[in-house]
Amino acid sequence: MKKIITALVVLFLIGGAVYILNNNKAKNAEETAIVAQKSATVSVRTQKATLQKTDTQYKVNGNFLPEHEVIVSAETPGRITQIFVKEGQKVTQGQILARVNIDQINVQLQNATSAYATAKADAARFESAYDTGGVTKQQLDQVQMMLKNAEANLNSAKITASNANVKAPINGIINKKHIEIGTFVGPGVPMFDIVNVQRLKLRVNVDESHVATLTEGDIIKIKASVLPNIDFQGKVTFIAPKADATLNYPVDLLVENNNEKAKLRAGMYGSAYFDASADQDTPLLLIPRNAFVGSVSSNTVFIAKNGKAIETKVVAGRNFGDLVEVLDGLKAGETIITSGQINLSDNSPITIID
């Protein structure tokens, strides 16, 4: 009897264990399905496209560069014997800046002068002899060729001697002096940096929507960061025919630097302000720049709709800092995805997070 009772108890315990295991298995399967369903969605952040009024004046930043800048290098090898200028000094084109030791150069010039004089006398003597039949035409030609070579050597020696005086190729200011008296220089060795800052260039990068309205000769308002209360005028002198890697176009604005009370200096930070559009009081449909897939030039965004990401092509307009104007393909009030696009494709299920 005890054995029967014990067997029944064991069967009861086994049955209970099997029931609990099956129940837990079903519960785990249900939880796994829920987790799998959640993990199949992509977490994103969103924002609504809105109509906004904004300052449509287009501003781009850049640095002031000298209109002319040259590095004066040595053309004749030798040791520097004299320096006639110092850093910060104004110089004019053709002014002598330094002199290279010309003792050896003078010797070469004297030798070339003597050789030329001898060749000239020989040529005159052979010409007279040829007229009387004392020399042949071949001998006369050889002497005349020697005269031409001697003349070429003399001219070369004169040029070398003149290069011993290092001269300024442009008007400007000595920005840097690379040499001292006693320095030995060779051809191509930098000696002076000269910059002309009477006129400066502000190099800025302009996007395609604004560069299309620019022409050479346009006058653009410019401000320098260190002189915020003074307006400068820049003349468009160059518009790049090809965009750079960021799909912007380099543009040069020439600025007259003749304000004695507010001198600009090369390397200063400046901003160019392009005219605002006539309809600047009209609200614009604006979305964040980071809503675009990849970059603004892709003209692709995702709209959040019914729990899915809908890939949408738009037409991007002007840039206003972190905001971009949308001209077509999007309506005010539509929810755009601003984060998580890298994991999305068209109709991907999404989960919106705060």
Automatic annotation (TrEMBL):
Ranges for domain CusB-like beta-barrel: 202-275
Protein family (similarity comment): Belongs to the membrane fusion protein (MFP) (TC 8.A.1) family.
Molecular function terms, GO-annotated: efflux transmembrane transporter activity
Annotated Pfam families: Beta-barrel_RND_2, BSH_RND, RND-MFP_C
Coiled coil location: 102-167
Cellular component aspect of the GO annotation: efflux pump complex
Alphabetized Gene3D superfamilies for the sequence: 2.40.30.170, 2.40.420.20, 2.40.50.100, Helix hairpin bin (1.10.287.470)
Superkingdom of source: Bacteria
Name of the protein: Efflux RND transporter periplasmic adaptor subunit
Organism this protein belongs to: Myroides pelagicus
Domain Multidrug resistance protein MdtA-like C-terminal permuted SH3: 285-340
Domain Multidrug resistance protein MdtA-like barrel-sandwich hybrid: start-end pairs: 70-192
The keyword Transport belongs to this UniProt entry's keyword annotation: yes
Subcellular location: Cell envelope
Lineage, uppermost ranks: Bacteria, Pseudomonadati, Bacteroidota, Flavobacteriia, Flavobacteriales
TM helices/strands, residue ranges: none
Keyword terms of this UniProt record: Coiled coil, Transport
